[in-house]
Amino acid sequence: xxxxxxxxxxxxxxxxxxxxxxxxxxxxxxxxxxxxxxxxxxxxxxxxxxxxxxxxxxxxxxxxxxxxxxxxxxxxxxxxxxxxxxxxxxxxxxxxxxxxxxxxxxxxxxxxxxxxxxxxxxxxxxxxxxxxxxxxxxxxxxxxxxxxxxxxxxxxxxxxxxxxxxxxxxxxxxxxxxxxxxxxxxxxxxxxxxxxxxxxxxxxxxxxxxxxxxxxxxxxxxxxxxxxxxxxxxxxxxxxxxxxxxxxxxxxxxxxxxxxxxxxxxxxxxxxxxxxxxxxxxxxxxxxxxxxxxxxxxxxxxxxxxxxxxxxxxxxxxxxxxxxxxxxxxxxxxxxxxxxxxxxxxxxxxxxxxxxxxxxxxxxxxxxxxxxxxxxxxxxxxxxxxxxxxxxxxxxxxxxxxxxxxxxxxxxxxxxxxxxxxxxxxxxxxxxxxxxxxxxxxxxxxxxxxxxxxxxxxxxxxxxxxxxxxxxxxxxxxxxxxxxxxxxxxxxxxxxxxxxxxxxxxxxxxxxxxxxxxxxxxxxxxxxxxxxxxxxxxxxxxxxxxxxxx
Length: 550
What we know:
By secondary structure, the protein is mainly alpha-helical. Helices cover 68% and strands 3% of the residues.
């Protein structure tokens, strides 16, 4: 079974080579490779999760080099769950993107870049979840960075290039900080292996240990978009195509949360910075949701709710108890699915209504009842309405806070409740403006061109009817026949609104909703699994013994 551990990383990388080899010459085969590989990765992840639950952590030392010389990959309950949920979500997003047709390219383009970049992104995510040492974790981050920049700038429009540049600059800064933290850790302990660090960090002077902890937390907080290190996110994600924004918002920030949870539980069990983490969690929840309240563009609104709800997860990490870790893990799995779903629905809204600016939307509950239902379920889940999985995760975290009984814990419980109510207000506002009220006079008609890839869509030429970064660029150009898209891609060609949404897009969105509802239906086994995961994280011994063999 240990031999299966590297496959979630190796399969997407091998498929990337095949995808590059075939390019656009055999487009259908290229799409088949991507779907087949992600399906296989999802199945393998589920097998690894079940095996880790039955027999404990699984590890493999590549090249049979023992730590600290070799590369170690480890699959335990936590990494298995994260792999399974993330693989299922990335598969759904891939199907959505195929329905949108965003992998088609102009005839002059020699290479279909979406599939290779997407597969590399999946490999990078898998590498971070399975990494058993800091260096390999850094490599996973860099793989994600390379793929992320390509995906963020698809189409080469001005707003996307600027947003992608901001993302890369922030990511490179965090990478340099991460390298500094790795160098300091290695200089102090002589290893970068997780299991060995769990033993040797405890032997360091308290000042050195705290400095290393602070550096690692800063790096992962940037990746996770934790306030006050989240200013880059609302300006980077909304300009990307809907599938890219969905997988970034739903998944990439959770990679940072996973790293915080892994390092805090394994390296720093005393949780010396717990109070700081709880203060940051409160600030993220409150300031993020207040930012969402102030937004009128749906993509930016959801970006701020993302920042806000990261605070719930940091809340659990800061408390560092069995109940808190269990609640945080439930909430991470829930939020991956629900945030991805909401951004996929946003893409459908944009395709149906011509914009994501809420002041220009309306009447969709009557005009597109299925779309209304696709939005309503994950929106209520995000707000934490019982008995959905959002409520289960929040309840677990709030119960952990009450059980802790500390002053900061009670403040976080109150902040969690207030944030949940404000989240309900935010999604109710979206429902009222986009779905419930009558359509405003200026709403884009079916067949309106949304975007074209020439330089004219740059926001420097934006007029009063052009809202940069909302997907509303180009409204007012001559529309093609109603319901006929010039190209459903964002690759330098026009996109039009349509009253009939592609079935794969609807099916993929419904599948992510079903995953979120499955967390509700199977809440009892899920919470039992996360409770066992929390116990394993707190014990630390199973992980260390599996890797070091002692």
